Amino acid sequence: MLRDLKVVELATYIAAPGAAGILADWGAAVVKVESPEGDPMRRFFETIGSDHAANPVFELDNRGKRSVVLDIRTPAGAQALKRLVATADIFLTNVRPAALRRAGLDHETLRAAFPRLVYCSLTGYGLTGPDADKPGMDVAAFWSRAGVGALTAPKGAEPFPIRTGMGDHVTSLATVSAILAAVHERHRTGVGRLVETSLLRTGAYAIGSDLAIQLHFGKLASTRPRREAVQPLANFFQTRDGRWICLLARQGATDWPRIAAAVGRPELVDDPRFSGARARRENTAALVDILDDAFGAMDYDTAAAALDAGDITWAPWQTPRDLVQDPQAEAAGCFVETQDGRRSPAAPARFSDVEEQPRTPAPALGADTAGVLAELGYSEEEIEALRP
Fold first, then answer.
1. Residue 272 neighbours by CB distance under 10 Å
2. For 253-265, what is each residue's pLDDT tens digit?
3. Contact yes or no for 194/122 (Cβ under 8 A)
4. Which end of the chain is more exposed for a tag (fewer CB within 10 A), N or C?
5. pTM, to two decimals
């Protein structure tokens, strides 16, 4: 889909490499520029004290790219990167602005030299304001500061960390969409622009429905335990064989009679404690207890069939181990093959009439330095001189 787009990525960790990884999955030619030390995510398992030889976390965000090692702290390295950017449509970076200015790789400098360039800056906190140059990981900027974690935790719970890369990958999606909007605009104007995304802003958008309530009313209900839920029918119930079901009643009153019938308790619809949304909210604990008993008397397969018969929105509560064995996840294209025969998470969209091909693995550090520099016109001697 994007085979005519050339991307230069000067980025580390997950959010920005993840965005470039999606572009690569969709056909863009991506060159990943790394320092002599390499992207720290290459040492992900080493950092957490594991001796795994494989690194699927790094592979996910970096498959299909070429790796070039350049030390942009040196004039020659920075100049080589500029020559590479001159051939690109998109420059994507999460390097902090001050470091980019020191290397002459800031937006103003590159825009003056390459007016068609779409320059994308992904940061923790944005490009303006008192914290613009602070480092920001997703646990800090997306999860903690944007309020995603506090909103997610049940009332009274101590803070806990987000899972690896979740906020990063949401920001990757935002970044891809913003880049492609700028590319579309360039088709009309012939001129690129600065595209700015941040973990903080994406976090605010991720909780946008709740944040809209906070902004409008000045207050917000907390996340509550099951027996204190504001909407007791939007809840979780365990079947006799120990499996949990996520139940979700749609807006309005349509689903309540169907749910009551599905669990074998149609008389509950006429119970004055549960006859309307307000009544059910006032009697949440009692209703949850009744539904606990009803689901607890059914095995999972029976409950699933009854809910499906009522056209009720529900889903199994699954672990990642369950998901990788879920035939619907397979059918929906959630996984792709890599050339070494392994499965990996797929990019979050697919296109009609585009056959999924096995993905090329992430490149070894600097594996493509000589080839890419030769394409830029560097001689063997010049390439050797650039080696760290």
1. 8
2. 789 999 999 999 9
3. no
4. C
5. 0.93
